[in-house]
Task: inverse folding
């Protein structure tokens, strides 16, 4: 039914202006739509929809994931330079150095948007 359909991520936020600054400036995503209640950003070949909600930040799992491939280290460094703080999850059983989790060749970082939504980048493609 959905195998040939595209999908997009959706994240709840409490303050659209603050979310716009974070997603557009900190994460360098292009705004493709801006209404009073919803922002849409281009992210690769997909879209990230950010909408105003009283339930913002209540999700305690990954909200969005990006695969950075060979650009993982450069991406992590750029995020650090923009003031992003990485979360650490020692219970995952991975090695952690400077907020970067690793297991073999796989690397991953997690960080939060201003509402506490968990965003994830890994070395997958």
Result:
């Amino acid at each position: 039914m959905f195998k040939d359909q595209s999908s997009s991520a959706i994240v709840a936020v409490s303050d659209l202006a603050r979310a716009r600054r974070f997603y557009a400036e900190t994460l360098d995503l292009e705004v493709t739509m801006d209404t009073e209640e919803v922002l849409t950003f281009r992210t690769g070949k997909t879209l990230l929809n950010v909408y105003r909600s009283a339930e913002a930040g209540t999700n305690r799992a990954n909200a969005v994931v990006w695969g950075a491939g060979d650009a993982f280290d450069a991406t992590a460094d750029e995020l650090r330079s923009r003031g992003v703080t990485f979360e650490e999850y020692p219970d995952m059983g991975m090695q952690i150095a400077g907020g970067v989790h690793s297991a073999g060749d796989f690397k991953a970082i997690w960080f939060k948007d201003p509402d506490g939504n968990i965003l994830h980048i890994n070395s997958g493609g």
The first helix runs from residue 16 to 26. The chain has two helices and ten strands. The CA atoms of residues 33 and 40 lie 5 Å apart. The mean pLDDT is 95.
